[in-house]
Amino acid sequence: MEFAKIFITLAALINPFGAIPAFIGLTQGQSSLERRRTARTAALATVLVITVTALAGQYILAGFGITVPSLQVGGGVLLFIVAISMFNAQPAPSRTTPEETDEAAERANIAVVPLTIPLLTGPGTVSTVIIYADQGTRTVLMLLGAGLVMGVVVWFAFNLAGPISRLAGRTGLNIMTRLMGLVLAALAVEFIAAGIRAYVNA
Predict the structure, then answer these.
(1) How large is the average pLDDT for residues 30-35?
(2) Are the C-beta atoms of residues 16 and 45 closer than 8 Å to each other?
């Protein structure tokens, strides 16, 4: 059950199916082979970001003197902002900017930046993984497993971006994004409440 919760949380944050329109737009000038290579690279980069964050995120926080309760409150607020954007079926401001999108059009390889970072694995994903990783080794292992599964989902979604986009349509993808936004909003409240409780009990 805990693994399912972690996976659903990552799926809502990364939202690979919601990123399909961005993938199609960014790879317009690519051949079929190049698009498959971009999808593979984005999937691997997604797994790498989750893995590195799960294993080293807490040490980075410690280096800056940031406590997990602080991250829970701050990360919860950030997730709520992302959730509101998803309710409106819009990309979250923390994920990418118009300037980054314009710059991506000039890049030879857009799989890592901006497709994976920050479009798929933005600050919300990073902070959430760190918060979960603080729960112990068992949870870290589940994060690593969920990260691998998410990599497969990203690869699948991007490789079938055209058919999925035609089948679901923009309305279908927007509905999916709004449902993921509802999950994130609930998770954001949970994180904020946990962070406040930790401060009160400290």
Answers:
(1) 93
(2) no
d(CA 50, CA 160): 23
pTM: 0.84
Q: Residues 85, 87, 89, CA angle at the centre, nearest 5°?
A: 70
Print burial letters for 154-172: b (CB count within 10 Å at least 16), e (below 16): bbebbbebeebbeeeeeee
- Is the CA virtual torsion 194, 197, 201, 202 positive or negative? positive
Mean pLDDT for the stretch of residues 172-180: 85
Structure tokens at 50: 């989750």
Domain 2-201 has CATH 1.20.1250: yes
Position 153 pLDDT exceeds 50: yes
**pLDDT tens-digit profile of 65-74?**
888 899 999 9
Query: What confidence score (pLDDT) does residue 106 get?
Result: 46
Give me the chain's average pLDDT, please.
87
Q: Could you write out the DSSP letters of every residue in 29-81?
A: TS-HHHHHHHHHHHHHHHHHHHHHHHHHHHHHHHHHT--HHHHHHHHHHHHHH
Among candidates 16, 38, 5, which has minimal Cα distance to 150?
16
Listed by start position, the domains of the chain span 2-201
Coil, helix or strand at residue 95 = coil
